[in-house]
């Protein structure tokens, strides 16, 4: 990449390009998979880290919140892929970073939790792409940041784990878009944050890591969690990508023994086991991973042994 970045976002656009944005500054750039090159695109209006990026139905990218100078942001902006220009849109009602964002079936964007000046948030809000405005929705039952969010096949939104400001969480809850309400579901077997969550072909949700190597599966039909095979390496701040063969690729992250990890491994949903695959060139955490049209996975940036990274690699 042209710029070193960490805790940034990466969005695969309709044309197959990958847009990376932020990670300490306002810059953004595009990766062309056909030429394997990066080009700068328009700068965001506000520098941010720990934000979210969502690809809307109109192919614009909505970026929300994050932090600048250690202060949480309530601002949001839109990237137009045809012009390469960012424009501001309505501010969120609550400033937040380390939150999540999900596209609902009706095209709205649901933002949940996060942190604001040290306080962990239970609030959630909805963005309307038509009006460019935010409305608050029901609060989660538990305040959380650094959690995961998954869109289930039944349209419900599953939020799992996270950090409540003092401890890791094992709680999970479901958002019903039709009733605009949250209900608790069974707790995970292990408390975790800065973990990953991946939707499998059978509709189950695989959560992995978050300080240890444990992984577990959520069954949306029964609302229950069951443990599955442990990863070979304990990790947090990693990425997880579902491949065309239905395996889940986990890359990098951090652990207290191995530091910044360059290791990667694959989860086989048929056997519930993990196998080691080729190492990345660089150890990294808080990086991004994007699945390209050709099935390759593009990993970008992050933080490594010697600081922020501008390197990118393909699996």
UniProtKB/TrEMBL annotation:
The keyword Repeat applies. Keywords: Kelch repeat, Repeat. It comes from the Eukaryota. PANTHER family: KELCH REPEAT SUPERFAMILY PROTEIN, OS02G0202900 PROTEIN. This is Uncharacterized protein.
